[in-house]
């Protein structure tokens, strides 16, 4: 039975003729796809792959800089939102010597503060915290510093400088904005 026969009456039926005593069959329209149809479909698939493979490659194979960048931006935005939502003061503690981050809030006990410091997160390997720059206190490149997020939605103004080999990225935290501005260079409050 021909699948196309419902739509094209007689389209797939074989024609048989008896001329000069020989039986011939004309099966010009058999089931299946033509070569032209297959070429068109393969061309369309190829065009789609040209555009999707680079995007797929960038998404799955993120380098450490992009992973660290997403973590820093996400953590800062989450702390700003949590400070407003929970009406608590939050702090992001950064130890520049061990290159670790941890967060605390104003209602934590001394034991909880100690546990938070013990469970600190690190940046992916290869990334280094170059320094933290405040507009008034200046640059801090060793020891521990804190970035505070207040319950009214504001925060400290600060630049976080991350080093990956000889390349730098800077993250600007503005006091009144929820977004973090990322610069692909060593930015400073001085320039």
Would you kindly provide a written description of the structure presented here, covering whatever features stand out?
This protein has 191 residues and is an alpha+beta fold. It folds into 2 domains: 3-60, no CATH class; 64-183, minor pseudopilin epsh fold, CATH 3.55.40. Helix content is 30%, strand content 31%. It has 3 helices and 11 strands, in the order E-E-H-H-E-E-H-E-E-E-E-E-E-E. The chain has a 5-stranded antiparallel beta sheet, with helices on one face. The model is unreliable at 1-5 and 7-14 (pLDDT under 50).
Question: From the helix content, strand content and strand pairing, which structural class follows?
Answer: alpha+beta
**DSSP, total strands:** 11
Task: Report the mean per-residue pLDDT as an integer.
Answer: 80
Distance between the termini: 79 Å
**Can you name the CATH architecture of the largest domain?**
3-Layer(bab) Sandwich
Q: How many strands, which pairing sense, and closed or not: the largest β-sheet?
A: 5 strands, antiparallel
What is the number of helical segments per DSSP (H or I, 4+ residues)? Answer: 3
- Helix content class: 25-40%
How many domains comprise the coordinates?
A: 2
Query: What fraction of the residues are assigned to beta strands by DSSP?
Result: 25-35%
CATH topology of the largest domain: minor pseudopilin epsh fold
The side-by-side strand order for the widest beta sheet comes to: 7-6-9-10-11
Overall spatial form = elongated
Can you write the helix and strand succession as a string? Answer: EEHHEEHEEEEEEE
């Amino acid at each position: 039975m021909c699948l196309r026969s419902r739509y094209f009456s007689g389209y797939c039926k074989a024609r048989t003729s008896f001329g000069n005593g020989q039986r011939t069959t004309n099966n010009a329209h058999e089931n299946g796809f033509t070569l032209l149809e297959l070429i068109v479909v393969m061309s369309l698939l190829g065009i789609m792959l040209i555009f999707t493979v680079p995007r797929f490659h960038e998404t799955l194979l993120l380098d450490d800089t992009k992973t660290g960048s997403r973590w820093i931006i996400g953590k800062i935005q989450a702390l700003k939102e949590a400070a407003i939502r929970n009406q608590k003061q939050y702090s992001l503690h950064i130890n520049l010597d061990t290159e670790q981050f941890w967060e605390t809030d104003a209602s934590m006990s001394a034991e909880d503060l100690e546990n938070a410091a013990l469970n600190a997160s690190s940046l992916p390997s290869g990334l280094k915290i170059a320094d933290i720059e405040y507009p008034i206190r200046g640059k801090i490149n060793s020891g521990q510093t804190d970035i505070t997020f207040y319950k009214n939605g504001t925060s400290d103004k600060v630049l976080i400088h991350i080093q990956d080999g000889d390349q730098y990225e800077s993250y600007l935290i503005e006091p009144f904005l929820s977004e973090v501005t990322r610069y692909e260079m060593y930015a400073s409050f001085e320039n």
